[in-house]
Amino acid sequence: MIIVMQARATEADVEYVSRRIEELGLTPHVSRGTERILIGVIGDERLVNRDQLTLLPHVEEVIPILKPYKLASREFQPADSIVSVAGVPIGGNEVVVIAGPCSVEDEEQIVTAAIAVKAAGARLLRGGAYKPRTSPYVFQGLGEEGLKLLARAREKTGLGIVTEVMESSEVDVVAEYADLLQVGARNMQNTKLLRSLSKIDKPVLLKRGPAATLNEFLMSAEYLLSGGNHRVILCERGIRTFVEYTRNTLDLNVVPAVKQLSHLPIIVDPSHGTGRHDLVVPMSRAAIAAGADGLLVEVHPAPEKALSDGEQSLKPAAFADLMREVRCIAPAVGRSVASPAATASGRESARTV
Description:
The protein is α/β, with parallel strands linked by helices. The protein folds into 2 domains: 2-63, Phospho-2-dehydro-3-deoxyheptonate aldolase, domain 1 (Alpha-Beta Plaits, 2-Layer Sandwich); 81-352, Alpha-Beta Barrel (TIM Barrel). The chain has 11 helices and 15 strands. Strand 10 (180-183), helix 6 and strand 11 (204-207) form a beta-alpha-beta unit. It starts with a strand and ends with a strand.
């Protein structure tokens, strides 16, 4: 349920309505826009008499929300959210490309990759220090040493760091190094981890689970939002289907669906979505055409030597080709892709967090 306050409502009015909601056993969440103040009511709406709430001081309208997610919904926030990551706005007019290797292997590899992706126009650097793997016998990442190497790559290139956090106990150390903390597909419904991330002052990239519905995806985002972290970016990375030709089935339907239902930005990972380097470029084109706010692409200086996911990684030259193609496609859907020296701008109607 959302309570829309009148334009002339004072802070005292907002506090009074919030206290009344708390007295009913529910949780108020105040969002201050440029023209109106909205109060989201978190909890069982059946406990609330809408008619009584409309009689509270300077309440303009009470809107019931039937969806299980409240704060992630467009009803709660009609304007798009723009999430700033190391000064790069995600969710605005610019389609932001994040690129780098699946895993950090050594300093030469990650620095070489960072220099190459920046030269091609990537705005942020991805790289895994902690790696969740299907087999316990393969490379699991360098841990904190990998985070330190990512920091060195940032020093040399100026690119912000995107890297995965796997456990609640690792949140603080990863947040010390990373500019954007990624929740991997396997952890999308790890509520303990989500609650920990909801308390930090860093943006979070939430990947969709391989068998998650759209409602489940947005409810995971709701854990982050309801805990106080409003800097959430969604990521579609493919779902498990009967298709065996690709690693996953990249569900691009979810991009316009999210845009209809939620104000949160959504990016697409065509590398994990296909598992094949030869399909990354065409699916990147399709993702931008579908309305994605960005791409998450795996790039390795020598994929044939990669310790993880080499088969889905682009070489730097192929990534440069991808960037040239997406710069042509983005304007066709009213978007842009920055050149290496360009700066981004957000939509006027959006809200930056």
